[in-house]
Structure formats: structure tokens, C-alpha cells
Amino acid sequence: MAACALVSACAAQSQVATAPAPAPEAGPAPPVASRAPWSSTYDPGDQGAPVLIRNATILTGTGTRLDGGDLLLEHGRISAVGHGLQAPAGARVIDASGRWVTPGLIDVHSHLGVYASPGLPAHSDGNEATDPVTAGVWAEHSIWPQDPGFERALEGGVTTMQILPGSANLIGGRGVTVKNVWATTYQAMKFPGAPQGLKMACGENPKRVYGGRQKLPSTRMGNVAGYRQAFADARDYAEQWKEYEAKLAIFKANAKPDATAPKPPKRDLRLETLAAAIKGELLVHNHCYRADEMGIMLDLAREFGFRIAAFHHGVEAYKLAGRLGEEGVCGALWADWWGFKLESWDGVQENLAIVDAAPGGCAIVHSDSSEGIQRLNQEAAKAMTRGARAGLPIPPERAIRWVTSNAAKALGILEQTGTLEGGKMADVVIWNGTPFSVYALAEQVYVDGVLRFDRSHPAPKARSDFEQ
């Protein structure tokens, strides 16, 4: 339409002109908007009219439950939550009587896209198993956005997830937090402003992978020596850059015309990542099963000054739940996985409830599975049941935090999502009933206020090539 209007205007102008207008002089092309390499290009899309959800049982993710509550979504954000909210002009009103509403679910441990479906060797891109320390690799550079697992997770209410490297290595590389939206590139899924994670792994996996190759590590003490040497090298690397920057500042201040600028250290992507973790720029996510090894990793963090955001899997987290709570470390756990290898043998199904009950406890339900991610809510329900049997009753308004706000906290995105509070991203799920049921189904899933899944009207949603 704009092109037609422009042509019409030119035609009208030519009828009254006495001479052709001079051609404009060629000038520089307008600047192209620049962005940092590897940065997010995520666009939430057209949020459309406001949405008012009425008469629902609302679990806000803050520990609060509202019966017969209302939730207003405007401009991709949570506008208000409460009772008796008024619908703005043009709003779409949903009567959610008998249904439950929660924040979008968040999985802190996923390999979707890096171990994509179909499960073929060509899609095995999660472990760079060429060295025990591959801190320089980024999981996001392996993500295949067409993995149909993303759509399956969305149908289970998952709106955000952290994609991690695998656990073959002592330090496997950087993880990335993504929005669960259809996209052609991973950059268009990347959660704006979310810090990257750093994946580390304890125990059997690294020593099994490298011990057979006659390389360090082949024992648990070799594991720890490998971590310590890597971080010691990173500390030295950071000092080299600090010294260089000090010399550069002096050089610039003196500004002598015949002076030679100092030469920067050679960039090392592996050490750069580890130095960033020491500085707190990356959140460390540690695959670790046994309580004794978690204690070792906490000492490692103390030695080199980084902080562990969460221990993942942690089947023995119940043994040191108090210490985890005191040190502000989350336990990203399964409801009942245990016994599939020796280091996972001493698990108990009350693990999540015990970690949650400890002072300062931060319990999270995670998947580590392309199937489990489809039912995080039911995994939480299993842990609730086991907790109640052990005398640790957990109401729904508390348990929902295991898959929403606690997960957001561990990923460093709690200020943006994870709870239904004013101003936060409108990542919302409407359930057909209590989400803590084997019969629970996500009826509608909103990401930044955009309806991304509607069980009653599935046809319009975008699908992977493998879903046609």
C-alpha cells in the first residue's frame, strides 16, 4: 500500500512540475542498527488486546493463592492481579471458573535443541568430549530451533528453559536461557538480559569418559585437580588482563607520541569463561549427585571466589539441605530418579521436600529429559505426596515455586519472570484444574502476553517441520 501511495503521489506531482526535479546526490547509506555478537534478537510479537482472566484459582509463585482471582495482561506484562478487576476497553475476557492459573513453568536443566529429536548421531551436539575442560564452548551454538521437543514442552506449560551442555566434562561450557517460542535462529529465542550459566559436572561421568583414554581425570581426585588447575589458570589470566589494563591506562594518560602501546594478552576463550565465573558474571550450575562431592564443590567455589547457583540432580541433597540453605544454593532435583548408577543409589523420594523445608531452602524440579519436561507439574506433585507422607505437607502455593520462582532465581531472571506480579513478563498458563494432578492439562500458554498454545484451537500455532 505504501508503495502504491508513493507512486500516485509522484504521478500527481509530475502533472504540475515545469521541469524534472534534479536527482538527489548520492550520499552514505543510512547506518544499519548494530547489536553485540551473539546477543538476543527475541521479539515477543504482537500482544494484541489486553486479556482479563477471571474467577480462577491463581498461584502467583510468591507463595500466595487467590481463589476466585483475576489476572490482567496488558502490553506483554502482568498489569494487575487480585479480585474484581475491571476489563479495559477492547479486552478479551476469559471466564476461568474451575480452572487454575500459574506463571509459565521454567526448566533449569534441558538439552532440547542440542540433543534434538529425531535422536540421531547428527543431532548429538551436547557434549564436546574432546577435553575435560571445554569452558570455551557455548551450548547456544549447538541449538537447533526446529527440535519438536520445544513444542511438546510448550504444551506442558514450559515458557522458559536453560539449555546446558552435557556432563561428559569437568567443565562443559556455557549454558543459555531461552524463551520457548518458535524461531529460525537461537538468537530469536534467547531470553533478553539473562546471564549465561556455566555447566560443571562431578563424579562418575568425567572420570568414566576420560579415564579410558588414559587422560586426566580417571579418579575423583583427578576431577578435583582438574577443576582447581583450570580455575587457577583463569585467575592468572584475569591478572594478566588487569595488569594490561593498568598499563594501558598509564599509556593513555601520558599520551607520549613516541610511546608504544602495551600489547594485550592473547585471548583464551576457555580461561575467559572461567574468569567471568570468578567475577560473578556467569551462574555456575553443577551436576553433582553425592553429598560429599557437593561439599567439595562448595569448598572449590570458596577457594576461587565463585558462587554455585544450583546443584543439579543432587539425589543426596537431603543430607546437607541445611548447608545449602545457609549458603543460598538451590537444589535442582528430580522427584524420584535414583539407582541408575552407583552415585545415584542413596536417593530418597522425600529429597525435594527436605531441601524445601530447610531454612533458606530453594528446591527446584528439573527435567534433564525431553519427556520429563512435558510434565514438570506432575513431577512436583509426586514430590509433594512424598513430603506429606514424611510429615512435610507442602501446599500448592508453595510447591508451584519449584517450577517457577525458584527456577527463575537460579537463572538470574526472577526480576523479569517466574511470578505473577505487576510489571513482570506475562508468561502465564491456564490449567484445566489443579496442575498437581495426573489429569492436569495446560489449556492456554502465554509467553509475554502472546497466546502461544491453545488446546482448543491448536491449528494456528507454529510447528516444526517434523510436526507436519
Give a quick rundown of the structure.
The protein is 27% helix and 20% strand. The chain has 468 residues and is an alpha/beta fold. The strands form 2 sheets. Strands 1, 2, 3, 4, 5, 14, 15 and 16 form an 8-stranded mixed sheet that branches. It has an 8-stranded mixed sheet with strand order 6-7-8-9-10-11-12-13.
Write a structural description.
This protein has a domain at 104-232 and 265-417: TIM Barrel (Alpha-Beta Barrel), CATH 3.20.20. It is an alpha/beta fold and 468 residues long. Helix content is 27%, strand content 20%. It is built from eleven helices and 16 strands. Strands 1, 2, 3, 4, 5, 14, 15 and 16 form an eight-stranded mixed beta sheet that branches. The protein has helices at residues 2-16, 149-155, 204-211, 220-254, 269-278, 291-304, 321-327, 351-357, 376-389, 396-399, 405-411, and strands at 51-59, 65-74, 77-82, 92-95, 100-103, 105-110, 158-163, 171-179, 197-201, 283-288, 308-313, 330-333, 363-365, 428-431, 442-447, 450-454. A hairpin with a 7-residue loop joins strand 7 (158-163) and strand 8 (171-179).
